[in-house]
Amino acid sequence: MRNLLLISIALFTLNSCVINSCEEPVLGCMDSDAINYNNQADYDNNSCDYSSDIVFYLDPNAAFLLGSNGVQSIKFYVNGSMIGSQYNNNGFIGTLDAPNCLDEYFTTATLFWSIATSSTFEWEAVDETGFIWFNSSQQTFPNECLAIQLTAKKIQEFQGNN
Length: 162
Hints:
Layout: H1 2-19, E1 27-28, E2 43-44, E3 49-58, H2 60-68, E4 73-78, E5 81-87, E6 107-114, E7 119-127, E8 132-140, E9 145-150, H3 152-161
Parallel strand pairs: 1-2, 3-9
Antiparallel strand pairs: 3-6, 4-5, 4-7, 7-8
């Protein structure tokens, strides 16, 4: 009987101390803002991936300025890659109000990056001849809808400095 009791205690100890502690820790992204967030992760392994949406739009004065200078299209580049264009169809579309990030009348894109909780990107507005009307850098954060307004004032200041 004593041997049976010792064996039972040994098996119980083995089951609770050895078997359960042998589980591998779950590695993964522990930032809930990341697109690959793992709510079951025990340890952060710096694998987080992030995204944010951006929309480029012209204010009415920029739309007029570009149109009056004979610009037929303005292409927007992010980190050297063209993401879309806006066209002069009897005038560019201009607005004072920030559009929705998915607004089809404006140039939109989704940016992706890894590890850091924010990203800085370079962008520029270039016409059909390759002339750069404006360029700048911008910081974005995860899950953000970043509306970037190109104004006549920004264009004029950029052109005056270049």
